């Protein structure tokens, strides 16, 4: 699958972020030469990976 195909499957969303958190994310993105969008997507993936087993147990 090429990059264009992957991009078409993404869903756009909007979230509010605390101004201090935004500035920190902005600085981290610049330092690592990545977009803030990429960093946020990766953070969400990690959160879901770490929380998914906990949520599954709670739902039983």
From TrEMBL:
GO terms for biological process: regulation of DNA-templated transcription. It comes from the Bacteria. It holds the Pfam family RHH_1. Residues 11-50 form the Ribbon-helix-helix protein CopG domain. This is Ribbon-helix-helix protein, copG family. It comes from Stieleria marina. The lineage of its organism: Bacteria, Pseudomonadati, Planctomycetota, Planctomycetia, Pirellulales.
């Amino acid at each position: 699958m090429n990059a264009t195909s992957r991009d078409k499957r993404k869903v756009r969303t909007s979230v509010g972020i605390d101004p201090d958190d935004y500035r920190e994310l902005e600085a981290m993105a610049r330092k690592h030469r990545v977009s803030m969008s990429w960093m946020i997507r990766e953070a969400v993936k990690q959160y879901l990976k770490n929380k998914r087993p906990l949520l599954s147990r709670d739902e039983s």
